[in-house]
Every structure is written in C-alpha cells, then in structure tokens.
C-alpha cells in the first residue's frame, strides 16, 4: 500500500483504495492509503508545529528544496508521465507535458522564493517610515481534483512552500498516484519534518477535517462547483482565507472571417483533447452563419479521423474517460441535449476497444440554444455543443450568457473583433485563434463569476493567496 506522509513519516492507512487504469480496468496502478480523521488531525498538528521554523528558514533553503523537486520531476518525466497516463487516462504525450509543466512550476517558485519582497514607503508624517512586510499565512490545506494530478498539486504546493507556509495536501481519490510520487520527492528534498504532509482519502472525511480545523489558516481548492461552494461557505464561517478554482462552460466563438483551419484546430484541441476533461475545455462552439456549415463539416471530418484508445498506446489522440460514473454522465448529457432538440452530428457513443476501458467517441451536437441544459451545465467530457448566431454582437452575448467565466476563445482575422472580445469577454482567460485550454506555467490562472473565487493561482500572482501583508511604522 502507498502510505500517507505525516510529520516526516510514512504512515499506513487503516483502509486503502485501488487506483484503477481507465484504459484497462483490469490494471490496478496500486492501492493507496486512506487517512482517517485522526491522521488528518495529526498532519495538521504537525504542520502547525513546523510552520514557524519554516517561516524563519533561509530563502536559500527554500530555493534548494523547490529546485531539487523541480529537477527530479524533470529528470523522471517519462516515468511520471507514464504513471499519469495510466492512472488518469490522459494520452502519454499530454501526460509527459503535464509532468514537465509541474517541474518548471517548482523551478519558477524556487526563484519566486528569492524575489518575494515587501515595500518601503515614506509616511505623510515627517520622519516616519512604513514597511509593508509579506508574511506566510500559516498552515494551508491544499485540495486537488483528479484531472491534472501533478500540475495542480504543483501549482499549489510550490508557492505555498516558497513563501514559508506549511502544507497539508490531499489529492483526489480517483488519481492519487502522481500526488504520492510528488510527496515522495518532496520528502527527500531536505524539507524539515512536518512542513509538508500528504493525506490521501475522501473529501468528506479528510477534506472536511482540513476545511474545518482551527489550525488550518487557508484552503486552496480546485474541483467542482458544488464542493467549492460548500468549502467557500465553511471557510467564510470560520474566517479562513480561501481560494476556489471550479468549473467552466467555456465558449469558442468562430466568426465568418476566421481562418477555417485555425478554427478547426482550436475547436478540436480545445474541446476534445485530454478527453475534454479540462476545466478550460471549449464546451460551447458559438458560430456565425456564414462559416457554420463549413465549420461543422470540417470538425466532423477531423473527429472521424481521431484515434480513441488506450492512453499509453502509440498514436492514440484521445484516451478514455476517467471512470464509469463520468462516462455515464457524459453519455447522459448527449441524450439530454438530443431530447431538448440538439442534433448529434458525430459521436457521443460508448466505444469498445481491445482493452476494457471507459472509451467514448467525441460528440458534436449542433442546433442547440443557450437555454438548453447542455449549454448551461458543465459536462466534463468529450462533448461540445454548437450555437449558431447571426453576427459578432450576438456571438459575444451568447459567449457571456453563462454563470461560468473561466476561459473564452475567439477565432477571427479581424483585429477589431479580437480586441473587442479581449476587453468584453467575461472570463479570467481569453484566447484569440488558440484553444481555450492551456496557459503557460508562469502566468496567472483563474476565472470570474461562478468559476473562481479569491485570488489567482500561478505566476507572480500566486503570492497574493499564500502571503498576507503587515503594515509596520517606525518613527525616529
Ligand atoms: P470534486 O469537487 O469532486 O473533488 C475535488 C477535490 O475535493 C477532491 O480531492 C475531493 O476529494 C475533494 N472533496 C470532495 N468533497 C469535499 C468536501 N466536502 N470537503 C473537502 N474536500 C472535498 O472535483 P473532481 O471531480 O475531482 O474534479 C473535476 C472538477 O474540477 C470539474 O468541475 C472541473 O471543472 C474542476 N476543475 C477546475 C479547475 C480550475 O482551475 N478551475 C481545474 C481542474 C478541474
């Protein structure tokens, strides 16, 4: 059994859970410990005891720890990519790409540990000086989803440690393998005991303890809207700092003047790669009348050529859905869309492959409207719906007609429309002539409206969540 890491020791769980390969459900990646309430409490107490010493550690020490972790992740990219593809179902090249991203995130925050500084300001009163200090918030609880099992933990753990916080980290139960491998590297990085703790297990047990424990000063959560809302209100009650990254219903607008090839590439990549299991996936194509038929034809032809199979097999372009529950949900949404008047022009069916896995053909549903459930609720699978519009103004209105606001894309050759969209798309990230998914590791990531709450993750903006400022006066 893969154990939890609490106060510098590897601790067995009283129970464990099998991590199953969605490409081949007879393949068990491993059995991972499930922490109980007592173990979660122990991890928090250990983090609380270790945090003051970590906060006082030298910047060189923090740099060395983070740099060590980044270096080892990069050196083991193939092996870790293999593990990621096996436990989550992302195809191997995407999985290796995610591992590399995680490695560079640690390298980036090694540098940020050195660059984090306050401000020196002169007072309006004579002779008085003001220092704004940036200090760690304390113990942070980091709760991550299954769909980016190494990149999301990396972009939470690395800034937390860089800025002097102690960490209690809980990966998702569906894909804990990468989180465990990351913990194993961190445990060997020279980090003092108690500063970093891994507690695997269920959200309702372990996650709930983290959210409600008085010694946890902040929660950074990525996952579903439902759980995020619950955590947000619990943290509000307890006056804890909280950062929530949740779902999306991301539009890709395609205008008549778009380069068709560019639009089709952005659409297919954005909606279906990573099996559509990305919070930034384009799930709504908003297409103007003049290009509509050509766009549908070209996307359909491309979908028909895509190879859906084992995530580890050579040449696979779309891997399996993560599990049985998610697959049923994806198929159900295709049915719901059809019942509401949508037309399935391609895919949306369960597929059989040589290995017994959760395979599904990528679905394109046309003739849909904003009022339909398929355009209101996040599916989180290889399913995209299309809304036909008259012109740019209607496209922008439809793109913004959603309670979500994570990523928003447009394909156009008009500088006017691109600039206008950049300004008025209600989203945290805007992509022109690019897929809605995928930002670099050194820039802010996050959304607006129902997609996100609190300050941004990644890049230099991560300092806002993982530190607090103290305003200090000195008079002569
Ligand atoms: P989820 O909400 O079911 O679980 C996320 C994490 O929260 C898991 O670790 C889970 O164990 C934990 N959890 C569940 N209940 C909890 C509780 N009551 N208290 C504390 N923790 C609890 O989400 P998921 O199915 O793992 O991931 C898919 C979702 O994540 C999608 O909605 C997707 O859009 C979202 N997501 C968002 C982003 C983003 O940055 N906006 C990125 C990736 C995924």
Report on this structure:
By secondary structure, the protein is of the alpha/beta class. It folds into two domains: 4-246 and 451-474, Aldehyde Dehydrogenase, Chain A, domain 1; 250-432, 3-Layer(aba) Sandwich (Aldehyde Dehydrogenase, Chain A, domain 2), CATH 3.40.309.10. It is built from 14 helices and 22 strands. The chain has a seven-stranded mixed beta sheet, with helices on both faces. A six-stranded mixed beta sheet has the order 9-8-7-10-11-21, with helices on both faces. Strands 5-6-22 form a three-stranded antiparallel beta sheet. β12, α9 and β13 form a beta-alpha-beta unit. It is globular. The chain starts with a strand and ends with a strand. The model has no long low-confidence stretch (mean pLDDT 98). Bound molecules: nicotinamide-adenine-dinucleotide (NAD). Nicotinamide-adenine-dinucleotide binds next to α7 and α8. Residues 143-148, 170, 172-173, 202-204, 207-208, 211, 222-224, 227, 230-231, 245-248, 279, 378, 380, 406, 451 line the site of nicotinamide-adenine-dinucleotide.
